[in-house]
Write a structure and sequence with these properties.
Blueprint: E1 2-6, H1 11-14, E2 34-36, E3 44-47, H2 51-59, E4 61-63, H3 73-80, H4 87-92, H5 129-135, E5 140-143, H6 173-177, H7 192-206, E6 217-221, H8 239-258, E7 268-272, E8 289-292, E9 307-308
Parallel strand pairs: 1-6, 1-7, 5-6
Antiparallel strand pairs: 2-3, 4-8, 4-9, 7-8
Length: 313
């Protein structure tokens, strides 16, 4: 099983007229026929943005009835790994965006912000998805989750992992032992193309050679669909550029996995950490859930009860 985590979108913002699904094309932001604008840049008419998302939704299965509980990333990444955010996290993550370390207010300084990794203060007694995998002796490899701790520096020159930790926050041993610390965590200065490239290289080195065996569970974070201000000098002249980067990375990862010997027994699930505050005509928490697998129902079987599919266009 492969679990791919992305950032911050509703169903209506991404999926462009998927046959059989409930949609409102007026709410599309990242579909197949968009008008893309940015200051100082030419206007792009009829521009496709998240092409692979839409092609995969048509070729395999997308749910139009999947909802996220979290409202933002600080609690969203906890929810993704099976943890209900506790009161400390729920009350303090939103403070982080305006955190002032030089404040004259009394008391200790603390702000979790949107940083998405679990800390001892919010770990439940039973642990998270990682402990569940460990208890049941399910081998896994984690790419990109688990060490985005409060205070982490995610600037342009933070090395290959995209992060420089400033506080010594312990990680659960099972997660530490099964995490690729070279794979970049959330850092908008690093293209998702690099994340896809790193993942494919690691797969080829570790699991596609004789005698190696792929773990039963892979967790992959590709996060540039979070979006950021345009950076033409970095190759991102529009907000939509970040979405297209993420879309291409998803397509490359799926294509790569589908050509491995493991594909015949594989299921890839793609979702978000939260719905990101975008509009949706059903519910603002309705989000992305793709299932990509030779075992998934394909376009020849019309979807009912909240899923839809059709032949690729």
């Amino acid at each position: 099983m492969v679990f791919i985590t992305k950032e911050n979108h509703t169903y209506d913002a991404v999926f462009d007229r998927i046959p059989g699904a409930r949609h409102d094309p007026s709410l599309l932001r990242w579909g197949l026929h968009q008008t893309i604008k940015a200051p100082g840049q030419p206007t792009l008419d009829d521009a496709p943005v998240m092409v692979n998302h839409n092609a995969l939704a048509r070729a395999f299965t997308v749910s139009d009835n999947f909802y996220m509980e979290p409202e933002a990333s600080g609690v969203g990444h906890r929810w993704l790994v099976g943890v209900q955010p506790n009161n400390l996290m729920q009350m303090t993550y939103s403070v982080g965006w305006n955190f002032k370390k030089d404040s004259t207010a009394p008391g200790r300084r603390y702000a979790m912000g949107s940083n998405g990794s679990l800390m001892p203060e919010d770990y439940p007694e039973a642990g998270s998805m990682w402990e569940h995998l460990g208890r049941h002796r399910i081998p896994f490899r984690n790419y990109g989750e688990g060490f985005e701790f409060p205070g982490v520096l995610e600037e342009a020159e933070e090395g290959r992992s995209g992060a420089r930790e400033v506080v010594n926050v312990p990680m659960p041993k099972v997660l530490f032992d099964n995490t690729d610390f070279g794979y970049p965590i959330f850092n908008m200065n690093i293209p998702d193309q690099y994340r896809a490239h790193w993942f494919m290289q690691d797969m080829e080195k570790r699991f596609l050679r004789p005698g190696k065996k792929l773990p039963a569970f892979l967790n992959i974070a590709i996060c540039n669909d979070h979006g950021a201000d345009p950076k033409p000098e970095k190759g991102f002249p529009y907000l939509a550029s970040w979405m297209a980067d993420n879309d291409l990375a998803l397509g490359r990862i799926v294509e790569f996995l589908s050509h491995t010997p493991y594909w015949k027994n594989m299921a890839i699930f793609v979702t978000q950490d939260d719905a990101g505050g975008e509009p949706d005509h059903i519910d603002a928490q309705r989000s992305v859930l793709l299932v990509i697998s030779p075992w998934a129902k394909r376009a020849d079987a019309q979807r009912h009860s909240g899923a839809a599919s059709a032949e690729p266009v």
